[in-house]
Amino acid sequence: MKIAAFDTSSSSGSVAILDDDQLVAELTIAQPGVHAQWLLKAFDALLRDAGVCLQDIDLFAVGAGPGSFTGLRIGISAVKGLAWACGRPVAGVSVLEALAMNLRGSKMAVCPILDARKGDVYAALYGLDADISSVIIEEAAFKPDDLFQRIRDAGQDTSVVFIGSGLVTYKDAVKENLPGARFAQPAFWHVRALNVGLMALAAGDKAMPPSGLRPVYLRKSEVEAKTTVV
What is the mean pLDDT of each run of 10 residues along the chain (230 residues)? Predict the structure, then answer.
């Protein structure tokens, strides 16, 4: 099965082509705010370099959230359009779990963390064994102190490694509240489209028509929140 995988959930974006669980080609671009400008051009170049045409793709996969609302919409819209064009199914996967997979095989629990703004973080806690993950704390938008307490309650406060761009803002808070925590190197803080593709492959029975694909925001956008108040 050939899979085209995408992630545009953060300031960096990633595109990959897989043949079953083997990586054929992957491209990551760190240019905040310009995903719409490079995404389809990069995918077209990747297809050419891999000697693959669009109709060869069996499944389109995308990081469905959480993350930047604008970034998620760009990636999901692109995947829907490509899948519609060649009559293929799509799969949306968790951005947090895909991020945690950068540390697959870890002997410690892994906490992916993203800055959700307004004093919140998007986070979850996973136990990883090779390519299989178990959920210890379900993904959600947390106040940092609430997340730290949940990790303590789970008995993981001395055996957890944090990963993700949320550490730019919250690393000092993690150190203060969870002195036993460890941190992945910044080179691992971004989602790889490879992981998105591998997760979609593992959950093959959850593939759906393009019309069924929706972003996973975990909380309302600012516009939706204002509309609710009004």
Answer: 95 94 92 74 93 96 95 94 96 97 91 96 89 86 98 95 97 97 96 97 90 90 44
Nearest Cα residue to 42 out of 55, 29, 52: 29
- CB proximity list for 61: less than 8 A, separation 6 or greater: 3, 4, 5, 6, 79, 90, 91, 92, 93, 196, 197, 199, 200
pLDDT at 228: 41
Nearest to 193, CA basis, from 2, 3, 45 = 3
Q: How far apart are CA 6 and CA 16, in angstroms?
A: 7
The span from the CA of 56 to the CA of 17, in Å, is 11
Count of beta carbons in the 10 Å neighbourhood of residue 45: 14
Mapped onto helix, strand or coil, the DSSP state of residue 130 is: coil
Would the pTM of this model clear 0.85, i.e. be above it?
yes
Q: Helices 167-177 and 144-153, interaxial angle, to 10°?
A: 50
pLDDT of residue 230: 38
Domains in the chain: ranges and CATH: 2-95+190-229 (3.30.420.40), 97-188 (3.30.420.40)
| Pairwise CA distance, residues 147 & 111, whole Å | 10
Alpha helices per DSSP H over 8-94: 35-50, 69-86
Give residues with Cβ within 8 angstroms of 116, minimum separation 6.
66, 122, 141, 218, 219
